[in-house]
TrEMBL record:
Cofactor(s) required for function per UniProt: Zn(2+)
Pfam family, one: Pro_CA
Protein's name according to its UniProt entry: Carbonic anhydrase
Organism in which the protein naturally occurs: Thiohalospira halophila DSM 15071
Record InterPro entries: Carbonic_anhydrase, Carbonic_anhydrase_sf
PANTHER family: CARBON DISULFIDE HYDROLASE, CARBONIC ANHYDRASE
The UniProt record lists the keyword Zinc: yes
Gene3D superfamilies from the UniProt entry: Carbonic anhydrase
Length: 193
């Protein structure tokens, strides 16, 4: 068993010991909303948005991007579990701003090992072989921080499986101080129709 496994299981034993009455929570989110946000380890949506177990759906991926799979989750969130309001939350200092598709595919072509960020540029320092398959993936990187929020809100808004009455809000989370700031152009793009 790895150190991480030991630590996770020890923390879980403590959590389960004080689990209390939460075993009776209903499946649909009590507060009726969903958040799409980045997987960044510095973001804790339960804390930055004040969520308890059972409150809301939180969908996370690299960048908090409106990928097909993120939209799949949002559609389920509303259609089957009743959420009526959605937030798209990207953040400052996102790793997705540090590379583009060609860079990622090039790194993976050299090796599958962890690359190094040297002077703002990614460099592959691993042992090959790599694989060419990275060229076939849209990595959904971020070139324009606020623009990416607008783009994602718009993509969700315009999706044929998303009803026009759901408000979709766009926010930026600041990793340096924990603050959420609304991106008005994104919220405007996500206004109910
Ligand atoms: Zn991020």
């Amino acid at each position: 068993m790895s150190d991480n496994q030991d630590a996770v299981l020890a923390a879980n034993a403590e959590y389960a010991a004080r689990f209390g009455g939460k075993g009776g929570l209903p499946m649909p989110p009590a507060r009726g909303f969903a958040i799409l946000t980045c997987m960044d380890a510095r973001l804790d949506p339960a804390q930055y948005a004040g969520l308890a177990e059972g409150d809301a759906h939180v969908i996370r991926n690299a960048g908090g991007r409106a990928s097909d799979d993120a939209i799949r989750s949002l559609v389920i969130s509303h259609k089957l579990l009743g959420t009526q309001e959605w937030f798209v939350i990207h953040h400052t200092d996102c790793g997705m701003e540090t590379f583009d598709d060609a860079t990622m595919a090039g790194l993976l072509e050299k090796s599958l090992d962890t690359a190094a960020l040297e002077g703002g540029a990614w460099k592959d320092v691993g042992n090959g072989p790599g694989a060419v398959d990275g060229h076939y993936i849209n990595w959904l990187t971020i070139a324009d921080r606020e623009g990416s929020i607008v783009e994602d809100v718009r993509r969700v808004r315009e999706h044929p499986l998303v009803p026009g009455y759901i408000p979709i809000h766009g926010y930026l989370y600041d990793c340096s101080n924990g603050r959420l700031t609304e991106v008005p152009a994104a919220t405007e793009a996500g206004r109910p129709r």
